[in-house]
Amino acid sequence: MNDTVLKFENVHKSFGPAHIIRDVDLDVHRGERHAVIGPNGAGKSTLFHLCSGQFAPSSGRILLDGEQISGLRPAEVNRRGLARSFQITNIFPGITVHENLRLAVMRKHGLQFSFWRFAGRLSAVNAEVEDLLDRLRLTARAGTLANQLSYSEQRSLEIGMTLASDPKLILLDEPMAGMSQEETDYTADLIREITRGRTLLIVEHDMSVVFALADRISVLVYGEIIATGTPEEIRANAQVKEAYLGEEVAA
Ligand SMILES: Nc1ncnc2c1ncn2[C@@H]1O[C@H](COP(=O)(O)OP(=O)(O)OP(=O)(O)O)[C@@H](O)[C@H]1O
Q1: In terms of residue numbers, what domain contains 152?
Q2: Which of 6, 71, 136, 190 has a CB 3.0–4.6 Å from the CB of 28, allowing a cystine?
Q3: Atom of ligand 1 lying closest to residue 48 CA
Q4: pLDDT tens digit string along 122-166?
Q5: Are residues 189 and 75 in the same domain?
Q6: By alpha-carbon position, which residue is closest to atom 8 of ligand 1?
Q7: Residue 185 sits in the same domain as residue 64
Q8: Ligand 1: distance of its center to the CA of 205 in Å?
Q9: Is the pLDDT of residue 246 over 70?
Q10: Would you say the C-alpha torsion 151, 157, 162, 163 has a positive or negative sign?
């Protein structure tokens, strides 16, 4: 059994003369929460775009569960089990929370075009939706239109929609962006609970969230991963302190 869900092998990405990702090797282990941190412009978004198929590498290989995904289109990468959570763009705003989750769960079961033929499986779908509502702390909001939710509730729903497909790997792209401290604390706690046992790759600027949530952290500086390790190892790494974290980590 392969213990690595996502593997970068010597991945390089350039735009014309600009070398943005440089010979990156990265292993995301099954069941771990892995964070990528680095200064502005280090290449974190580019790395995520490479994972999800928005960009193809200039050279090197990317493997999902042992299968090469580099060069595949985003929809195909998604079909193979990689779900990327964007701010709140996966939500249908004009339908309820329950209906949103039901669509996401039905999509996983392949029910969208053959609803009646699979009527017998609907009770299983409903049970999954109820379970998701509970874990997302949205049971009381089940009948609310998605566009009526608070921002952090919308983010919870969005992450829930991503989880509903039961992906092999979840990419979370700055989930705390634009949140107050209170919303950040709430969402970090929720992400910790609902991603237990899942494999997660996260980019996040809030260092307190990263260090509390991640099992391992990779530090990207000028397109190169200069260190990978547990939060304690990263905190203690002299090269990381010098290149990036400095006082933030010492704090
Ligand atoms: N399509 C593109 N064409 C040319 N240059 C690009 C392209 N996309 C990104 N870049 C450049 O790649 C570098 C890394 O950008 P990227 O957005 O990946 O960094 P980041 O670490 O996510 O930054 P931030 O933390 O500010 O979001 C930047 O200098 C950016 O200008």
Answers
A1: 92-166
A2: 6
A3: 18
A4: 778 889 999 999 999 999 999 999 999 998 899 899 999 888 888
A5: yes
A6: 46
A7: yes
A8: 15
A9: no
A10: positive
Partners of 202 in beta bridges? 35, 172
Residue 87 domain-assigned (yes or no): no
The atom of ligand 1 lying closest to the CA of 205 is 25
Q: How far apart are CA 136 and CA 139, in angstroms?
A: 8
* Residue 174 shares a structural domain with residue 116: no
The tally of domains found in the chain comes to 2
Convert the pLDDT of each residue in 60-117 to its tens digit. Answer: 999 999 999 998 999 999 989 999 886 556 789 999 999 999 988 888 777 555 555 5
What distance lies between CA 177 and its chain's CA centroid? 14
For the entire predicted model, the pTM comes to: 0.89
Domain-embedded: residue 145: yes
The closest residue, in CA terms, to atom 31 on ligand 1 is 41
Residue 26's CB is within 10 A of a number of other CB atoms, namely 20
Answer whether residue 248 shows pLDDT above 60: no
Q: How many CA atoms lie within 13 A of 96 on its CB side?
A: 12
Same domain flag for 184 and 200: yes
Strand ranges, E, within 120-223: 169-173, 200-203, 216-221
Residue bearing the CA closest to ligand 1, atom 23: 41
* Residue 151 shares a structural domain with residue 138: yes
Q: Give the separation between CA 69 and CA 132, rounded to whole angstroms.
A: 29
Write down the ipTM of this complex.
Answer: 0.93
- Structure confidence by residue, pLDDT tens digits, 210-240: 999 999 999 999 999 999 999 999 999 998 9
